[in-house]
Amino acid sequence: QVQLVESGGGLVQAGGSLRLSCVASGFIFSSSIMGWYRQAPGKQRELVAQITSGGRITSGVSIYYSDSVKGRFAISRDNAKNTVYLQMNSLKPEDTAVYYCNTVVRSLPRWGQGTQVSVSS
Fold first, then answer.
1. 39: helix, coil or strand?
2. Which of 37, 42, 63, 72 is found 20 to 30 A from 93 (Cα to Cα)?
3. What is the 8-class DSSP label of residue 26?
4. Which residues contact 100 (CB under 8 A, 6 or more apart)?
5. CB 48 within 8 A of CB 57
6. What is the pLDDT of residues 7-54, one digit of tens each?
7. What DSSP character marks residue 70?
8. What whole-number distance in Å separates Cα of residue 42 and Cα of residue 53?
9. How far apart, in whole angstroms, are the C-alpha atoms of residue 26 and residue 89?
10. CA distance linking residue 40 with residue 109, whole number of Å
11. Strand-pair partners of 60
12. C-beta of residue 24 within 8 angstroms of C-beta of residue 110
């Protein structure tokens, strides 16, 4: 059974930092592309960052960031721990959203339950 469990969200002031974690199980994590999406109230879910599979921690992987978070967020993975991270720095009120971990297993998108990130001005 595929499971993605996010943690690390919370309330932070603008300019602050948070680190999200997503622990995965039920599929071959090391071979899977992992992504972080977010959904703000009244908006569509959007891709924030994505990391391809790699043989070593962040070595040999390709990474994508949306323009809105480039230079502030960093995605990484630890294949030994089946975990993907999202380090979020210089947070802005517009980063407020529910953040979801994502992967595709057997051609189906899989989602975690989400973790709320709220940034106050």
1. strand
2. 63
3. S
4. 6, 36, 37, 38, 39, 45, 111, 112, 114
5. no
6. 999 999 999 999 999 999 999 999 999 999 999 999 999 999 999 986
7. T
8. 32
9. 31
10. 20
11. none
12. no
CB of 22 within 8 A of CB of 83? yes
Query: What would the pLDDT profile of 101-111 be if each residue is shown by its tens digit?
Result: 999 999 999 99
Residue 120 Cα to chain centre, angstroms: 20
Strand locations in 1-121 (E)? 3-7, 10-13, 18-25, 34-39, 46-51, 63-65, 73-78, 83-88, 97-105, 108-111, 115-120
Under DSSP, the state recorded for 31 is: G
Name which of 4-8, 49-53, 66-70, 71-75 the model is least confident about.
Answer: 49-53
Task: Please state whether 55 falls in left (phi above 0), alpha (psi between -120 and 50) or beta.
Answer: alpha
CB 31 within 8 A of CB 51: no
Reading the block at residue 3, the tokens are 């499971």
User: Residue 121's pLDDT is what?
Assistant: 93
